[in-house]
Amino acid sequence: MKLFVVLCTLFVLNASAYVVKSRDDLLQFRNECVSELEIPENLVEQYKKWQYPNDSVTQCYLKCVFVKFGFFDTASGFNVENIHQQLVGSQGEANHDDAVHATIESCVDNNEQGSNACEWAYRGATCFIKNNLQLVQRSVAPSA
Ligand SMILES: *[C@@H]1O[C@H](CO)[C@@H](O)[C@H](O)[C@H]1NC(C)=O
Questions:
Q1: Domains contained in the chain, number
Q2: Please, what sign has the CA dihedral across residues 96, 28, 42, 137?
Q3: Is residue 6 part of a domain?
Q4: N or C: which end of the chain has fewer CB within 10 A?
Q5: Which stretch is the leader sequence (predicted)?
Q6: What is the CATH classification number for the domain harbouring 65?
Q7: Full domain range(s) for residue 51
Q8: Atom in ligand 1 nearest the alpha carbon of residue 126
Q9: How does pLDDT run across 21-30, given as a tens digit for each residue?
């Protein structure tokens, strides 16, 4: 019985653990979202430069990528823990009291204004990318 409880606990902990994504994952998510949403080439070129114009196509693209990362979900919104863990990397520990956590948190909202999911994801994602661009880029940089 004890073993059963331990195994269940491990399973639950494990199920909620975020797996840090690699550069390959990012490139794969980008390709999947580009083809799912039929993003025109000129916009793709901008995304590769971390430029995200405020249009409905780009809003839905960022939502798509954030959903694939496990950063956003249409029902529950942003997952600050997962975003933080991605920035810290698989070796690091995301300390929920630190400044990075606070900057991520400052960018997310619960969509009190009732925007559609694409706008909601875009609002948080662009804020977060702008505030943490270097960390974001480093977290998915080609490994040295
Ligand atoms: C995007 O544009 C809309 C319409 O002009 C505006 O209401 C919204 O605040 C903009 N979003 C961001 C994140 O700048």
A1: 1
A2: positive
A3: no
A4: C
A5: 1-17
A6: 1.10.238.20
A7: 23-139
A8: 13
A9: 998 999 999 9
Burial of 4 by CB count in 10 Å (0-12 exposed, 13-18 middle, 19+ buried)? exposed
Q: What is the pLDDT of residues 47-93, one digit of tens each?
A: 999 999 999 999 999 999 999 999 999 999 999 999 999 988 888 88
115 lines ligand 1 (CB under 6 A): no
SS (H, E, C) 9-51: HHHHHHHHCCCCCCHHHHHHHHHHHHHHHCCCHHHHHHHHCCC
Q: How many CB atoms lie within 10 A of CB 69?
A: 19
Judge contact between 52 and 58, C-beta under 8 A: yes
For residue 126, what pLDDT band results from cuts at 50, 70 and 90? very high
Q: Is residue 7 part of a domain?
A: no
Query: What is the pTM for the complete model shown?
Result: 0.84
Tell me, yes or no, whether 77 lies in a domain: yes
Q: How far apart are CA 74 and CA 99, in angstroms?
A: 26
Does residue 126's CB lie within 6 angstroms of at least one atom of ligand 1? Answer: yes
